[in-house]
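To illustrate the input format used throughout this study, we show a single complete record. The first block contains the structure-token representation of the backbone; no residue identities are included at this stage. The design step must infer an amino acid for every position from geometry alone.
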């Protein structure tokens, strides 16, 4: 198989886990063996070892100008190191800042104004990137839309891992359809994260005939993502994405809240979720589920992104443009159309098989 040439914007914790994973799983072959952390060893004939980083963009001076293999371990990144990474000969380039750095994050993201941004579309073309992966901070509306436009200009597929609505915006979806370029989005749904667990529990309660009265999901962490979202103006789309993802699984009115609720620095990339569901059983007898989930946030998302990358490449190979609906419904919190996860998985497998 040809290599899948990927570019990354935002070389933070999620990018670090993804890049480490390319090394960690590079020896995985096409077999039926269960490999922890992977949903597919081989997907459409593509292995993890077929994914090749060819370009990367960031704005932090501690990363710009360094090799990607070094940048992923630079501050303020704080996710766990689970693999050594060989040098890629991919230099992290300066992208446009736009609204990517919130005012309260200037001490965390150190931007050197003397470093000039590169022509991103030109760099995507010269690197022959197939796919651009968006890992910008939550709330970077202008920056995400600008990078999406650069992907269109350069002829790249786009994977939108954050809750700025691109795939789920009809105007943007139509732009990618017309350009015959695939897009998967929006807002990555982790391998075993707060939202997928919350959805699974609500689906089970509904299927078993109990009645949900209310449910909430509270999340705390210590990485720059959680620090960024302490500004309520950056948080709106994240709350919408998570809350709608859970509410979509309940076929009647019930109170639903899901979202980040603060930053505790010492947690680093560990994310702690407190989830509660109040429901009624036979005879309207009340019951509740009270659950705590603790996960390393960034590796949890990378386990899904490696599949999203390979699905996007299959679509490119087949010359399919626009939103990949089954992939978006299965991999993302805020797709254009919500599905039950079991249905999305079935349709995704049908797509993979062609």
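Output of the design step:
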């Amino acid at each position: 198989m040809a290599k899948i040439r990927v570019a990354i914007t935002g070389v933070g914790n999620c990018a670090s886990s993804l890049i480490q994973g390319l090394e960690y799983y590079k020896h995985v072959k096409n077999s039926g063996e269960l490999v922890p952390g992977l949903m597919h060893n081989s997907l459409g004939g593509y292995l993890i070892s077929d994914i090749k980083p060819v370009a990367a963009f960031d704005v932090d001076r501690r990363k710009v100008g360094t090799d990607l293999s070094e940048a992923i371990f630079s501050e303020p990144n704080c996710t766990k190191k689970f693999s050594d990474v060989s040098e890629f000969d991919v230099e992290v380039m300066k992208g446009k800042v736009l609204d990517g750095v919130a005012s309260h994050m200037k001490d965390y993201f150190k931007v050197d104004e003397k470093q000039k941004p590169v022509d991103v579309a030109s760099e995507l073309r010269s690197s022959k990137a197939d796919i651009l992966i968006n890992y910008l901070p939550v709330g970077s509306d202008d920056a995400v839309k600008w990078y999406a436009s650069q992907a269109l200009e350069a002829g790249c597929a786009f994977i939108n891992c954050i809750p700025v609505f691109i795939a789920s915006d009809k105007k943007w979806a139509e732009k990618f359809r017309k350009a015959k370029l695939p897009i998967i989005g929006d807002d990555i749904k982790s391998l075993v994260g707060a939202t997928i667990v919350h959805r699974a529990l609500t689906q089970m309660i509904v299927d078993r005939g109990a009645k949900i009265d209310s449910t909430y999901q509270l999340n705390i962490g210590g990485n720059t993502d959680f620090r960024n979202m302490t500004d309520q103006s950056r948080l709106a789309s994240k709350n919408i994405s998570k809350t709608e993802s859970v509410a979509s699984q309940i076929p009647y009115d019930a109170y639903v809240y899901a979202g980040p609720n603060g930053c505790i620095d010492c947690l680093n990339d560990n994310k702690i979720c407190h989830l509660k569901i109040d429901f009624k059983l036979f005879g309207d007898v009340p019951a509740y589920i009270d659950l705590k989930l603790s996960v390393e946030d960034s590796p949890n998302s990378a386990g899904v992104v490696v599949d999203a990358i390979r699905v996007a490449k299959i679509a490119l190979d087949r010359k399919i443009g626009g939103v990949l609906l089954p992939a978006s419904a299965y991999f993302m919190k805020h797709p254009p159309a919500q599905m039950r996860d079991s249905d999305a998985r079935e349709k995704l497998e049908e797509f993979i098989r062609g």
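Structural context for interpreting the output: The first helix runs from residue 13 to 24. The chain has a mean pLDDT of 97.
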